[in-house]
Amino acid sequence: MKILETHDLKKYYGSGDTQVKALDGINLSIEEGEFAAVVGTSGSGKSTLLHMLGGLDYATSGTVTVAGKKIFGLKERDLTIFRRRQIGFVFQSYNLVPILSVYENIVLPLQLDGRNADQSFVQSIVHTLGLESKLDNLPGQLSGGQQQRVAIARALVTKPAIILADEPTGNLDSKTTQEVLGLLKLTSGQFHQTIVMITHNEALAQLCDRVIHIEDGRIVDDCVQGGGVHEE
Prior knowledge:
This protein is α/β, with parallel strands linked by helices. Helices cover 32% and strands 29% of the residues. The chain is built from seven helices and eleven strands. Strand 4 (61-66) and strand 5 (69-70) form a beta hairpin. Helix 3 packs parallel to helix 5 (144-156) and helix 5 (144-156) runs parallel beside helix 6. The radius of gyration is 17 Å and the shape is globular. It starts with a strand and ends with a strand.
């Protein structure tokens, strides 16, 4: 089942000789439960792609469909609600609320949506990510790796259609990087969670189920790990 699909997705800035084609016709589909890495150098368009996939910015043309919904056709308020319910985000800078405890940060998306937390599911996430002893701590009392674990838990708690991770290990040392990526893989498998991770780190990408290379706003390679080529 396709969870995410783009059709001829374009994002242009400027016009004429100074026009920049950040995305230049991206056709991409992500299946349910897939853990895919989008790899590219700085300026390749990978972060712009993530912003489009998450409805954080609008395309020049083309479509993005998440869980059967064309997100660019939604009104701003409806898009905000859809993002909160169907798209989890994990950012390089964690984006935790410093005055809230770990537990409060985790359940915040549910509270914003007026929903009660599924406590058994929350406890399952907390246990999987090894956060049981940290629930009353503030983010400032945690290491970078621990803060990223909280961010992953927060992304999982709404049971979204997809999680988008933007350079999630960019601020971490190599040991913690491996740990966090291992946890992303674990949660992908345990909760059958679809994840798309943006990274410039080729070695990290090779640990994912599928690796999509992007250059100059175009997909130049798309391979399932094990040697297969992904076909649309």
